[in-house]
Design a protein that fits this description.
single chain, 4-stranded antiparallel β-sheet, 3 helices
Length: 191
């Protein structure tokens, strides 16, 4: 059982994994594709490989190939442009007209929370607190987070205090610079 909420470029989901009504573990449920999409689905864990292969393909207009109709399947996909898409139990993908959405177990309760002003993260937290089919931690992913290929490491010169931000694969030409890890992408100095 899973709850997924999207609002204002943020996708949130619970992390609990269930086998029927028995909680058997936890895992991250939101995926970030190499195309910058945020995506999550509610349904059987056996569909993970199928869902990830579809994400890697990167064609939002191509239906998700599900071997058999999954009555409990539903997904949300948030494109880098901010456009939200739904994936139904037959694998059809279509744009969502709303500014926010909820999918999965207790989605009606979650949608009400979103309508009342809750953030995606708060709506998932409320589902975990008030419904027995949601649990674990709240995983939160933001649309504007830096993709891996754009991540930088800050290098600082301890003598002068000068800083530069370089891609993960590069090192500064001046050996005096020492590596620092920023806590937030907003901390990156302009290149």
């Amino acid at each position: 059982m899973t709850i997924i909420c999207v609002k204002n470029g943020v996708m949130a989901a619970d992390t609990a994994i269930y086998d029927g009504d028995l909680r058997v573990g936890s895992q991250r449920k939101i995926f970030r594709s190499r195309h910058g999409w945020l995506a999550a689905f509610a349904g059987k864990c056996s569909l993970d490989a199928c869902f990830n292969a579809w994400l890697d393909h990167g064609d939002i207009n191509k239906p998700l190939e599900i071997d058999e109709e999954e009555s409990g399947f539903g997904g949300l996909v948030l494109l880098p442009s901010g456009v939200l898409h739904r994936v139904d139990n037959e694998g059809s993908v279509f744009p969502s007209a709303g500014r926010f959405a909820a999918e999965g177990y207790c989605r009606i309760f979650a949608f009400g929370c979103l309508c009342a002003g809750a953030s995606a993260e708060a709506a998932v937290s409320l589902c975990i607190a008030h419904h027995d089919g949601c649990g674990g931690d709240v995983q939160v992913e933001r649309l504007n987070a830096f993709p891996v290929e754009e991540q930088r490491i800050i290098w600082t010169n301890p003598v002068t205090g000068d800083s530069i931000a370089l891609p993960l694969s590069q090192k500064p030409t001046n050996p005096v610079f020492v590596m620092q890890q920023p806590h937030d992408p907003k901390d990156y100095p302009a290149l």
